[in-house]
Amino acid sequence: MHMIILIAGASHTGKTLLAQNLLETYHYPYLSIDHLKMGLIRSGQTALTPEDDAQLAAYLWPIVAEIVKTAVENRQNLIVEGAYIPFDWKDSFDAAYRKEIRYCCLIMTRNYLQAHFADVQRYAGAIEHRQEDSGCTLTALIAENEENLRQCRQYGHPYLLIDKNYQVDFSL
Asked: Could you tell me the CA-to-CA distances from 101 to 65, 72, 84, 104, 170 in Å, in that order?
């Protein structure tokens, strides 16, 4: 059986690290939506900038959804990770596609972020080198993670809550 895994979450929650670990464990390829974003921006295919988050989500998701459909149709495994997966992602797929997709959102609690903010900043480049990270503030991360938790609950999506220790157990 093949599987598509969607890994969502706020900035700095470890989406890319989880995708890399799944790649190494299951040998599933993964697509970083950030790589797609930067490729489209740098190639001039869009006038959007990395700071245009809301517009980027609307621009990128239809492309990513079609990549997911293609992988399902070709019976291929694929991990897709990024902050640009909308909470209404299911609306992009009919039931036949959805049964092949597994979704998970990584969420850090307020308590975790308050206790480990220095660690979050220190490990921000564990997989990818971040060139500019001044927008990463404790206040912003708390707000984004709390909003993601609210949205996951509203949509009934599964999530992994990172509370006391950074421990992300996701197995197939």
From this structure: 11, 9, 16, 10, 14
